[in-house]
Each structure stands twice: as C-alpha cells, then as structure tokens.
Amino acid sequence: MYTVRIAEITGCRYTGVELNASYVEDECKKWAEEHGVSNQGEFYQGSMLDPPSHVREQKYTHILSLGAMLYVHNDIDKFLETIASCSTAETKIFIWDFVCNKDWTECGELNRHMKMEYPIRSREDVQERMKNSRLNLTEFQDFTPYIVPGYKVMERECRKRDPNMEFLTFPLMGKAFMDGTMSYVYYCLELK
C-alpha cells in the first residue's frame, strides 16, 4: 500500500480515503500499525467523488491518486473538482491512471478483467477535462514501457495456475498494455 510505505519512508502525515470499509479496517489500518505509522494519519471509508466532510474540508500539501482515477472516468469532472477543493496554490497533485487508446467497444477482452460499466477515457479526453477544470496540468508522462516487463512475469505465473485465464484475468491488462490498447500514465497538476 503506497500510503503506508510513503509515510514510513518520509515520516509524513497522511489521510487515506478508500471506498471499501472492510479494506480500511482489515488492511489499511492494520498495515499502518504493523509498519509503525498509525500515529501519522488516518484512513477513512468514503468515495473519492464525495469524501467525508472532515477530509473534504482540509487543505493538503500533496494529493496522490495512484491507479484509482479510472474508477471515476464516468464522473471525472466531479473528481477533479473534489481535488481542486482540497488544494491550495502550493499543493502538488500526482495522479497515476489508465487510459484507453482504442474505442472502448473494441476492448471486450480487456473489460473481461476490468468489468467496467462505462468506458475508460482516452488520454486526450482526460487532458481536455483537466484543461477545463480548476487544475493546471504541469507534467505528463506515459509509463507503459516501464510496467510491461512486470506484466510478462505476471502472465507467466497466472497461466501456471489458470491456463485459460478464466479466473486470473489480470494478465489481460498486460496484454492491453503490450498491444497498445491501454496506457499507464502519470499526471502532475496544480491549482490554477
């Protein structure tokens, strides 16, 4: 879990928001305690579109969304506004996200793993939404080439256990990265 590890390495304070209440109790808080950082912050159950009021009303030095924004691609404008409302001119915002490079109707195999009820947006569409928000995109990078080797190992190991990938479908994401259907990207933003 990124939050706990970052707090452990840097000594920073943190506030974590997770939709799944049992994950907050059974994993996040437990891991923070095991790694000696439970006194540096709190984890809360809530939506990243509508975080608990005590989270939403704070201002933060850094905001991280690591591999989670794709779950709100259907309401990305509200997500960006939520981030902006928790920011000051000095806040650094880092987002890792997945974007689709093809029409979503052509991504049936990928969606067999992801089970998304709405399309994953393209890089251009996400960046246009950012441009129309209260946030300014200061840096962008496509990290796909750096994660493909890990997915090759993952696919090999999953196929040992599930040769037809009926249950262990995570390698389908790796295949989507390798064939250019999807990209793993990084955005750095700040308040306008």
Helix/strand/pairing category: alpha/beta
User: Spatial order of the strands in the main sheet?
Assistant: 3-4-6-5
DSSP helix fraction? 40-55%
Give the oligomeric state of the chains in this entry, treating copies of one chain as homo and distinct chains as hetero: single chain
**Secondary-structure element sequence?**
HEHEHEHEHHEHHE
> Radius of gyration in whole Å, from Cα?
18 Å
Q: Number of helical segments?
A: 8
Distance between the termini: 30 Å
The low-confidence runs, each spanning 5 or more residues with pLDDT under 50, are none
The main sheet comes to: 4 strands, mixed
Strand portion: 15-25%
Number of strands: 6
Shape: globular
Q: Please state the average pLDDT score.
A: 93
List the helices and strands and how they pair.
Elements: H1 2-10, E1 14-18, H2 21-34, E2 41-45, H3 53-56, E3 62-66, H4 76-85, E4 92-100, H5 108-114, H6 123-131, E5 135-142, H7 144-161, H8 171-178, E6 182-191
Parallel strand pairs: 1-2, 3-4
Antiparallel strand pairs: 4-6, 5-6
Helix pairs in contact: 5-8, 7-8
